[in-house]
Design goal:
Mean pLDDT: 79
Shape: globular
Radius of gyration: 22 Å
Largest sheet: none
Number of strands: 0
Helix content: 55-70%
Order of helices and strands: HHHHHHHHHHHHHHHHHHH
């Protein structure tokens, strides 16, 4: 009996010293949120989900996973690699598009939690902080809105975003070949296997992090040296990314064309208002994709099937409050910089709505 107790104590001690409990928590969340994905044979719902089943399956069935052309659908235009390419590879392994998409959806959720846990733990060294950040990052209404509408290219970009920001910060801090290569690979994966325009969503924040690190780098002489060094590092990374993503741009240099509309149009102010939410709804992480849950054409973030609007918004406030805890408990340079990035993201996400709506329209 004593030997059993000793072994049990050893297991508990090992679990406390390692990352077993956070890993179990992530798996439990996965089982709760994706129980219908895992234990039913039905295809995932969502307006966009069907396309992520049919298109990659078509590529696999016709042997066109790595082809620049659709044999029947290209109309003379090239096909850019996207998350469809990654899904087609997965479908070729499991030989079932519905099962493949389910595996991808569940894996993306686990990756989003695990990547945020990894990055936060690297910054803080605290499992509790890393665990809370993993829950906040993977279990918020923004991500759920994309799952309900089935926009899996955005989901793929979202789940690897902590790795991209972490490798970028390490690159401009360590300035080594290893850190530069890791960032170049992660950013190239974003461009090649999610959707290439996702890079424009990340660019403002990468520039913002670069500027913040510059101003916190020391005195004027140190700043100048920092600027010279990181200019070379960023130039090197850019060249590496251009090389790694040559599959995207080389055909266009050789004369192929993309099936894209002209850039002479753009969004009107009315479109911007329609596609944006208020400041409070933005902070709560609401997304228009939540309206798919209602299945009645109504805006889902203004109603709930069994909660009043006040109770719904009160419950939605829990995650933003949890996200603020590290700022209040132990603020440091990195936390302050990323907190400023959060404010920037809120300003961009709320669009032309108040406050500072006119500034957004002008920009």
């Amino acid at each position: 009996m004593s030997n059993i107790l000793k072994k049990f104590t050893y297991i508990l001690d090992y679990a406390n010293r390692s990352h077993v409990w956070p890993a179990l928590a992530i798996l439990v969340l996965t089982l709760i949120f994706f129980r219908n994905f895992m234990f039913t044979a039905e295809a995932p719902a969502g307006i966009d989900a069907k396309g992520f089943i049919s298109r990659p399956w078509y590529l696999f069935q016709n042997g066109e996973i790595w082809s620049l052309w659709h044999s029947q659908l290209s109309f003379g235009f090239i096909r850019l690699p996207t998350v469809d390419t990654a899904l087609a590879i997965l479908y070729s392994i499991v030989n079932d598009p519905v099962l493949g998409l389910k595996i991808f959806a569940v894996g993306a959720f686990i990756l989003s939690a695990a990547s945020m846990y990894f990055v936060t733990f690297k910054y803080t060294g605290r499992k509790l902080s890393a665990g809370v950040s993993a829950v906040v990052f993977s279990s918020n209404q923004f991500l759920f809105s994309y799952y309900t509408s089935g926009v899996y290219n955005v989901i793929a970009a979202y789940c690897i975003s902590p790795i991209i920001f972490y490798t970028f910060e390490r690159m401009i801090t360590n300035r080594t070949w290893r850190s530069t290569t890791l960032f170049s690979i992660s950013f190239s994966v974003l461009c090649m296997f999610t959707r290439v325009d996702m890079a424009t969503f990340f660019a403002p924040f990468l520039i913002f992090l670069l500027v913040c690190n510059f101003f916190s780098s020391g005195n004027d002489e140190t700043k100048l040296e920092w600027l010279k060094t990181n200019f070379r590092i960023c130039l090197t990374a850019s060249i590496m990314i251009i090389g790694l993503t040559s599959f995207l741009w080389l055909p266009m240099v050789m004369g192929a064309r993309l099936p894209l509309p002209t850039s002479s149009g753009g969004f009107s102010n009315e479109d911007l208002y329609f596609r944006s939410l208020t400041l409070y709804e933005t902070i709560l992480g609401y997304g228009r994709g939540l309206s798919y849950l209602a299945l009645n054409g109504e805006m889902w973030w203004n109603r709930h099937p069994f909660l009043s609007l006040f109770e719904y918004r009160l419950a939605s406030s829990v995650l933003p409050i949890l996200a603020l805890i590290p700022i209040l408990i132990k603020p440091n340079r990195k936390i302050v910089i990323y907190s400023l990035a959060v404010l920037l993201s809120i300003f961009l996400a709320k669009g032309p709505n108040d406050p500072f709506g006119s500034l957004y329209i002008w920009a």
